[in-house]
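Submission sheet (multi-component)
Chains listed below:
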Amino acid sequence: MLDDADRERLRKIVSHPIAVEPGRDLIPEGKTPRDIHFITEGAACRYKILPDGRRAIVALLLPGDFCDLHVDLLGHMDHSIGALTDCTFSRVAAAEVDEILLTYPAIGQACRRAELVDAAITREWVVNVGRRSSEQQLAHLFCELYFRLNSVGLAQDHHFPMPFTQNALGDMLGITSVHVQRTMGRLRDKGLIVQQGRQLQIPDFERLATAGDFDPAYLHLHPRHL
Amino acid sequence: MLDDADRERLRKIVSHPIAVEPGRDLIPEGKTPRDIHFITEGAACRYKILPDGRRAIVALLLPGDFCDLHVDLLGHMDHSIGALTDCTFSRVAAAEVDEILLTYPAIGQACRRAELVDAAITREWVVNVGRRSSEQQLAHLFCELYFRLNSVGLAQDHHFPMPFTQNALGDMLGITSVHVQRTMGRLRDKGLIVQQGRQLQIPDFERLATAGDFDPAYLHLHPRHL
DNA sequence: CGACGGGTTGAGCCAGCTCAATGGGCGTGG
DNA sequence: CCACGCCCATTGAGCTGGCTCAACCCGTCG
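Outcome: structure written.
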């Protein structure tokens, strides 16, 4: 990973934060942003709109995740980036990125690694969304959320922020909000999750992981705390 | 993209081909292959096995696609690579790759681009597998197949090889082979596809694309023939 | 205090599933 | 040359998870 000097280099070229309200887009599909964006606060998503108007969320962006690193080589966004909660992004000018990458290969490698983990998560979503029952899907999603938030210091002690509407959850899993409601009810009844406002508690992680067929290997987290 | 000199450099470090029979694995989940593999003939897939034994295919590998470029940074395979038909792979020694990448940045860029397209396709699969009806799913898959095969010179004139069993198709789409059967029947009845042995014909591409909500933008193909 | 954006609950429907049986193509061995 | 076995495609019949439609409730905000 990066050392402190690398982090300092990055900090210098980051511009002022951009705030985006829930439901608004940071970047719409088809656009070719010149600069690179990443999320620093809140939660956003990659999504596509279907012909009948439904929104398909294909990835969740949590603090630290890049939004559009791939645009330099792919040329245009094949999906939109939208805010799910109040969130803030930072921008790095493309020219500066190019220069940094040429000079400090460790940073480029860290970026490529982030892209590869993003792809690995997307593969797991294909499985989640395509094969598992709604109960497994939700359980799996909550496990993923806990691990990912924990890895950036936003979750501990079996608690984590879960500020998504049932509608947003449905759009992540390909089910209706009505069905999210009933399914969360079942998870609650089984004691697998406890809702406390916009926080979620996982009393017994092992049980939830089993219920959701969750194995964190695909997240490729660096061995850390936990 | 690469110039002829780059291509020549690549050719030199490629080792003898590896043949794999349908149903066999080139690389099993959890392994850490030292060398890089790519497919030169036939069709393979990335897949994961679910606890109940079902196989979830999360990506299709066609001639020219890399299998495990990501292992250097991610450390281990989070899925298996299996052959769907008789196919052959080539191997490039890891050490040679590292050297080439350092010396010829254009090659590294082409590899990263391939990874990014792979990721873009996976995102579209999340949509396909999670949201669309079985009829749309199949139509979409056939459109993708046609474009991808065409881009490597393996499909023209509305015809392309489609050697997959209904079981394999079901594992790509998350539906049962019985349902694949009935759905293909419906596509046939509507005249959207014509089966000729292991070839598929698409009489009217526009109609199939509409039926499958297919837009090739996500494939990020270089403007070429077609 | 009215409107609005969520969450909650009920009732009926249907796409895709399961289970089950049949048929056809092809390689293998007698 | 035929018989057998195997794998895959095909077809029927009944079941069910998740959907749609439709209320109603509650907290928040102008």
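Remark: Chain A has a mean pLDDT of 93.
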